[in-house]
Amino acid sequence: MPMSDAARAQWQIHLCVLLWGFTAILGKLISLAALPLVWWRMALVTALLAFVPRLWRALRTMSARQIAALMGVGVVVALHWLTFYASIKLSNASVAATCMALGSVFTALIEPFAAKRRFAFGEVLLGIAAIPGVVLVVGGVPSGMWTGIAVGVLSAALAALFGSLNKRYVDGADPLAMTFLEMGAGVLMLSIAAPLASGFIPLFDAPLLVWPDARDFGYLLLLAVACTLLPFALSLVVLKHMSAFNAQLAINLEPVYTVLLAIVLLNEQRELTPMFYLGVALLVACVFAPVVFRARVAAAA
């Protein structure tokens, strides 16, 4: 029996989440500051896509309005990644990834406006249910990491915004063209904003054009291809067959993958308390709650 588009989308989004689980690990391993790290990540993806002939054919079919809208989304993506990696540098990979679970709260509030649909009361409640988990996470880390948590929450809001906007514009657009325009716009924005905002906005208080050493460049290339280009384009395909909120619920599993990877690869469990892991468990429960509820409804029907 062939797999339905909806079922395939579920498998695809979880593959994306698994790959995204490595982004925080690589962000911790790369010695660059958040600003040049994000610039290199987006620049490498843009450069790699420029060699794909299909991309240029797709771009020729897009209107100027579509291109401008997607470039605007790219600015939001760049700001999300900038705050995400700043959160990692200010705390650690586990904490920054866990903050992303708040994305479901923000998505429940933002997507109805972006997608021009009615509010789903159940989605709002489920998003709010994630808040106690985040409170436990905050209480389970040293106070020196709280700034990293605040920046991580901002990153989650930006992720919800660009996810909801991508859902609005994804129909009829080529995923590779969307990725190219968003990544390219991010590179352009960071290149212009870095010298202008330096000294005014702390996130931009770092040299932009820093040439990475061989080790960092290898990690950046892995980050660009395996953790950005592949899952970013695939996630746009997924959004054709599921809502931004359901996709965000699956993305809430990213902290689980990241925490497990951080324990194995970075030995981060020494910095965290049982309260932190209880908070992560509550966030995971929020992911599976709608799945269990729908299964019971289907069984009762």
What does this structure look like?
This protein is mainly α. It has one domain. Helix content is about 75%, strand content about 0%. Helix 1 runs antiparallel to helix 5 (about 95-100), helix 4 (about 65-90) runs antiparallel to helix 9 (about 145-170) and helix 8 packs antiparallel against helix 14 (about 275-300). The radius of gyration is 19 Å and the shape is globular. The model has no long low-confidence stretch (mean pLDDT about 80).
Quick description:
With 301 residues, the protein is an all-alpha fold. The protein is 77% helix and 0% strand.
As a percent range, the share of strand residues is under 5%
Rounded Rg: 19 Å
Number of strands: 0
Total count of helical runs of at least 4 residues: 14
Structural class: mainly alpha
| Termini separation | 23 Å
Overall structural domain count: 1
Task: Using the alpha-carbon principal axes, give the shape.
Answer: globular
Would you tell me the overall average pLDDT? 82
Stretches where pLDDT falls below 50 for ≥5 residues?
none
In N-to-C order, the SSE pattern is: HHHHHHHHHHHHHH
The largest pleated sheet is described as: none
